[in-house]
Amino acid sequence: MPHCLLPGRTLQLRSRFSPSQWYKFSNSPFKRLRSVCESTDVKILHSCNGLLLCSSPRASGGDTDYFVCNPTTKKIVVLCRPADGPYGSWRGIRGLYLAYDPLKAPDYKVICVWRFAGDLLYKILIYSSETRVWRLSESDEYFYYSSKAHFDRGAYWNGAVHWHCDTDNWLYFNIDKEKLNIMPPPVKLEDGLLERPFVYFGESGGHLHVIEDYSQAAALYIYEMEIDYSGWYKKHEVRLDAIPAALPETTQLRDPTEEGITLLSVIRRERDDDSFLVLQVHGRIVQYSLGYEASRVLVDFDFDYDVYGGGLRSWGWCDAFQYIESLACV
Question: Which residues fall within 8 angstroms of residue 206, CB to CB, at 6 or more apart?
């Protein structure tokens, strides 16, 4: 039998129309982030080993607070602003990421990708929970990169923050060495640009994944990065028409190449057969087992697909974060 999320683990799904409303797929220490902080408009930016990195607009308007919270202990720490000068406000932020590995150290870091106004020049800033201040990375060189880099869609894995791009040079920042490196894309690019879109980029169970949407074949190609960054290899190929095959008749796709499937997350387990995808199909959150090729409904939002068109896709559901309970200090 395919397994669901392990006890103590949860997957949180956020609506763009009600940012503080979250839906849980297993035991969760919170349902609304307002139970952790006082703001009613909280956005999760990143999740890492039991800690969440969030943002919230100030009640006075015109500015944003960024904070790290532990929903299990209900403790939060508001991040201070970077030092004076060009980094004295939050306006240049293009991406913020938590780096926390409790097996290596009790403290965490926040990695910030900073862009200078009007330029494609970037700098990396580092916040440490040990010192409670920001500093520039020891690599004191600015770096140039095109606007094709998705610095807002990174993933923490293997002691580094990784970013996928629409060009043939993908990036990762090694935190211990404080060095920016290049890694290859999983597929050959035509004229330096992607031929098909990537619909997922993230980490689970110590593995870094990227998923390519090959609509002509009505399939998803799941790639995994080698631990030494020598390249990607195709881990799974999932046909879209196989995903809803075991679901109720009301959930069946009319045409899997055109309607209704949105990929939310990849969940890896020690046994490959126990790994699965989490997707939305016609307003239902669905678990699809990669090993057993079986589907089951986790959550049914119970609204009329014919009325709302593309299900959650039309409603703007987009952000899903893996979370595990932790007693980590913030």
Answer: 157, 268
Count of domains forming the chain: 1
In the predicted model, residues of the chain with pLDDT beneath 70 are 1-40, 59-62, 83-90, 117-118, 140-141, 147, 188-196, 214-217, 244-260, 301-318
Q: DSSP characters for 145-187?
A: --TTB-TTS-EEETTEEEE-BSSS-EEEEETTTTEEEEE--SS
Supply the DSSP string of 74-89, one letter for each residue: TEEEEPPPPPSSTTSS
Residue 329 is assigned to a structural domain of this protein:
no
For residue 101, is it within any domain? yes
- Specify whether the CB–CB gap between 90 and 80 falls below 8 A: no
User: How far, in Å, CA of 154 to CA of 156, rounded?
Assistant: 7
Q: Are 255 and 244 within 8 A, CB to CB?
A: no
pLDDT tens digits along 236-268: 888 877 776 656 554 454 444 445 677 888 999
In this structure, is residue 183 part of a structural domain? yes
Tens digit of each residue's pLDDT (9 = 90 or more) over 66-97: 899 998 888 889 998 776 555 556 677 889 99
In a domain, 153, yes or no: yes
Q: Is the dihedral of CA 224, 100, 180, 89 positive or negative?
A: positive
**Alpha-carbon distances of 178 from 135, 175, 216, rounded to whole Å:** 12, 5, 41
Contacts of 127 (CB under 8 A, 6+ apart): 79, 109, 110, 112, 133, 134
Cβ–Cβ under 8 Å, residues 14 and 54? no
Task: Look up the pTM and report it.
Answer: 0.82
On whether the CB atoms of residues 96 and 111 are closer than 8 A, the answer is yes
Residue type, 292: Y
Domain encompassing residue 163: 79-193
